[in-house]
Amino acid sequence: YNVWATWCAPCLRELPEVQKLHAELAGHPKITLVTLNADDNPGLVEPFLAKHGYQFPVVLAHRWIHAVLPNLGIPRTWVVSADGVLRYEQIGGEPGDAWRNKVLGEARRYAL
Question: 1: how many CB neighbours lie within 10 A of its CB?
Fold first, then answer.
């Protein structure tokens, strides 16, 4: 999972890598990338995705994020195994191949 918002500058730097990760995982039988959007105005999300050509899946999660995790800093990436256990967490943006390779490695590690 990747948590982001259209107004979050570190998220904006990280999202191109999220798109690349999504493309790398396309068709993988055991790994799914889902993003959770934290915007309070869901009407901003679809035009933002279209403008940047992003095609990763997005769950509009503002209410959930603020109800369950009100002090959540973003961007944030979680790798969760099939048994529902949080296996890896990356807090803050770290754009570039290093971020993507780390997340991909952790996802593959727990996709057994």
Answer: 16
